[in-house]
Amino acid sequence: MRGLVWLAMVAGLAGQLGGWADAAERPKLIVAVSVDQLCQDYLVRFQDNFAADGAFRRIEKEGAGYTDCNHRHAFTVTGPGHAVQLTGTYPNQHGIVGNNWFDRASGKDVYCCDDPTVQLLGLPAAKGVSPRKMLVETAGDVMKLASGNRSKVFGVAIKDRVAMLMAGHNADAAFWLEDNLWTTSTYYRKDMPGYLRVLNEPQCTEKFRGQAWELLLPKDKYHNTGPDKNTWENPPKGFTSEFPHSLADKAKLTPLEFGDLAIISPFGNQVTLEAARAVVEGEQLGKDDFTDLLCVNLSSTDFVGHAFGPHSLEVEDMVYRTDRQLGEFLRWLDEKIGAGKWSFALTADHGVAPVVEYAQQFHLPAKRAPLGKLDAVKTTLEKLLREQLGVPMGAKPLVQKVEDYQVFLQHDHEAFAKPGVFSQAQTIVRDWVLEQPYAVAAFTRDELVTTGDTKLFQQVQRTFHPVRSGDVLMVMAPYTVPGAKGTTHGSPWRYDTHVPLLLIGCGIKNGRFSREVSPACVASTVAELAGVDYPSANAEKPLAEALGR
Asked: What is the pTM (predicted TM-score) of this model?
């Protein structure tokens, strides 16, 4: 009887950790793709123009799609959103609370991947970067650990932070573009592989010089019908707000300047997928008995979205081209890895808000810089705190910094040494924020280390890290955007949190599912496909419907 119970327990554990009893049925290669700033809204509004041989139609026919996938942390920016996907947890645990965050000790902002102990290959003057600031491991790290480093794990992206935060601490390498060259950090390896050195000779975007980004479809097919020539978009220097966007008259631009412009177009996705193919072939991914992982980010959709906004022809055209580029990539995987031998998951790090001036035309309560100039806010709060706490003016401020979504107090100020004063100061700041016209919520440090039961509180709490976050975190109303031009993301509102979650390939069942899920579910799902345990801080269950459970 004891033997039967033990066997039942082992069978249950195998079902939890692997999905299949037979390792031969697992994918040879798992590809995790994050399309930067891809909103679920685009898959709804633009679906009639997706190509028959594109990725989205193929996944609809053969794969799984989740229509209610939302990020569950509040400050939806690139670094946190990509760390979420393969760690399976949120900024309060993985520690990547922003692309940058304020370091109290130095009094300066730090980059989420800064690491002065390492260097970039071929670019010794550039700042060193690594994934060391991420506090937990990824699914790829677990795959490496479980296989004794025989599973191969790589990351590829234009943005350095994305390649590293998706691939993880023990990846074989993460590659990104720096000064228009594919590079990596000495954290991962000491030399660049030949297959990427080839792409760097000449610099990988130079081949687009003399070309133009034109509309893929006839203009009357597009759903974004606002005027192409307008004043609310914020095109990069060298482009206008109108199609076509020519790269033909840019002879005077240096290779670096030209490359920075070329990646704000579908050409950026093209060079990224070219590098991804080179990694698969050069590293012989998917060619042995141990499942490999390739993490890919298509960053150019984010560059275009910031500049032109979600209701532009540029963004819509980017979505159509991304659909076709990924469709071609899936066919290439069929050829190189073998049909039925790979798995593919796609999601995004965040969505994006409408351009304020565009939203105002539709009578939405949109507003730029809802708190006004942050230096003025800091001055106001400093004066208010000193008045209410009875602290005379002095050289050392009570307010260390004010950001768009949080306020940092000077923790070591002598005024806060008295019992209860620091908590009182948090409350004063919170209450001032709540009096502002566009404020929806504000929470103190004292509140965020306790338990709250509202959805918005929990979103903010998942963003809060006790060392790296501020002392009062705030949420502004929908359609409010910091910054003077273009648009951005970073809020807990649905246009920023609602992203696609699509899967196809080995081990994936066909279906369309409406259950609310998170991009963090990718980590445990990848682990199930690879037959390993989940990352240690994983907070989300795998996508059971897609796995046929």
From this structure: 0.94
